[in-house]
Design goal:
CRO Repressor, cell membrane, single chain
Length: 178
């Protein structure tokens, strides 16, 4: 019985310390680590959880090993983030491009199929932005974090926010009526 209490006590103490260290390292690594996720951020976050789980439950994993693991992930995340900000090639490798799903009220069928998005998903995104008519939408973009951006038509402005979106500008051939 005393072995069980020792194990529980070990988990409580080491888990608390690992949690505090993880919070400190996440604060040091900056807002980028906790921002909306792309695939790279998701992998880092899952790895953080895996290391924390091992520290909590694997008696043969020391707190120091866990802290080194956390530190390594933070350093790698900061390095890759810095490289992606300073290198277009690295950014292209790490981050997906936003993708145009609907343009000037017309669905882009080929892109919907490629991204595995249904017309219903796009319509739901439009409705969630308080728009009732597809014709009033300039564009719907699938962002790199999986969110939908809905841009209303406005005759007085340009579409300069779409400049980095994959599939923009769109030809009439690519458009499919809803």
């Amino acid at each position: 019985m005393s072995g069980n209490w020792t194990t529980i006590f070990h988990t409580l103490v080491i888990g608390t310390l690992a949690y505090v260290v993880l919070i400190i390292l996440l604060r040091i690594s900056g807002k980028r680590t906790l921002s909306k996720w792309n695939a790279f951020d998701f992998i880092v976050t899952v790895a953080f959880g895996s290391i924390l789980g091992m520290i909590l439950l694997a008696e043969d994993t020391s707190l120091i090993q866990g802290i080194v693991g956390f530190g390594l992930l933070v350093i790698l995340q900061l390095t890759v983030s810095w490289l992606s900000v300073n290198s277009e090639q690295m950014q292209a490798l790490i981050k997906a491009k936003p993708t145009l799903l609907l343009y000037q009220g017309n669905m882009i069928a080929e892109t919907l199929k490629k991204e595995r998005i249904t017309q219903e998903d796009v319509l739901a995104a439009i409705r969630s932005h308080g728009i009732s008519a597809v014709e009033n939408v300039e564009a719907v973009v699938l962002e790199t974090n999986g969110n939908f951006s809905v841009i209303e038509k406005n005759q007085e402005t340009s579409s300069s926010a779409l400049i980095d979106v994959q599939g923009y500008p769109v030809t009439q051939k690519e458009l499919a009526k809803v």
